[in-house]
Write a structure and sequence with these properties.
It is a single chain. Strands 1-3-2-4-5 form a five-stranded mixed beta sheet. The chain contains nine helices and five strands. It has helices spanning 3-8, 34-38, 64-80, 95-105, 111-119, 127-136, 141-150, 152-168, 190-202; strands at residues 45-47, 53-59, 83-89, 176-179, 182-185. α3 (64-80) links the parallel β2 (53-59) and β3 (83-89). The protein has a single domain, classed as Glutaredoxin (3-Layer(aba) Sandwich). With 203 residues, it is of the alpha+beta class. The longest helix has 17 residues, at 64-80.
Length: 203
């Protein structure tokens, strides 16, 4: 990981970070507040719900770097025991990515199983491959799509909020991480992430 990019990406969530928001958003709740970014109640939160450090991950189901890093991040969260891991769907690789995000976010109790199955796939995906992967994991894509349809407003609003945040952070792609209140655009190895978690705890 390039340390210069990391140093340039430091942010002060909750400390009056100035970002250029469109005029229509000024009267709405601030999508870039610490609460909105780290504690969106609709964003899946894994690990320890009462963890002392939050890792936010912007990801796409077709991003090869996201999928490669996923097992390592999950292992770190599990072994540490005090990390809250927030997954922010940012489907930037086209319609299959959006389709996958909608199915998983609408899946309720099956969302973790569905997410893990899709994150274990290699390379780019089609809608047919997404359905096949979910069926292989013992899930029903048609039922999941129906569940999304019933919860469409909430799911689509969450995906939109994630996109607004990513754009305001000037992210160029996935993955990207926030550890505590520091933004790390791009791939992080486990050693870097452990150091970031330790730094967040010190602060």
């Amino acid at each position: 990981m390039n340390p210069n990019r990391r140093d340039l990406a430091r942010l002060g969530l909750g400390l009056g970070l100035a970002l250029a928001l469109p005029r229509w958003a000024i009267a709405a709740p601030d999508p870039m507040s610490k609460e909105a970014v780290l504690f969106d109640p609709d964003a899946p939160a894994l690990g320890n719900p009462k963890g002392d450090v939050t890792i936010v991950e912007f990801f796409d189901y077709q991003c090869p770097y996201c999928k490669k890093a996923h097992p390592d991040v999950a292992r770190l969260v599990r072994e540490d025991g005090r990390i809250r891991h927030v997954m922010k769907d940012w489907p930037i690789f086209g319609p299959p990515s959006l389709y996958a995000s909608r199915l998983v976010l609408g899946a309720g109790k099956d969302s973790t199983k569905a997410r893990d199955a899709l994150m274990a796939t290699p390379g780019r995906l089609t809608a047919e491959q997404i359905d096949a992967t979910l069926r292989k994991a013992g899930l029903d894509p048609q039922a999941m799509n129906a569940a999304y349809g019933k919860d469409r407003a909430r799911v689509d609003a969450l995906i939109e909020r994630n996109g607004v945040q990513a754009e305001n952070f000037n992210l160029m792609g996935t993955p990207a991480y926030i550890v505590g209140t520091t933004l790390f655009p791009g791939v992080m190895d486990v050693a870097d992430m452990k150091r970031a978690v330790a730094g967040a705890r010190r602060r």
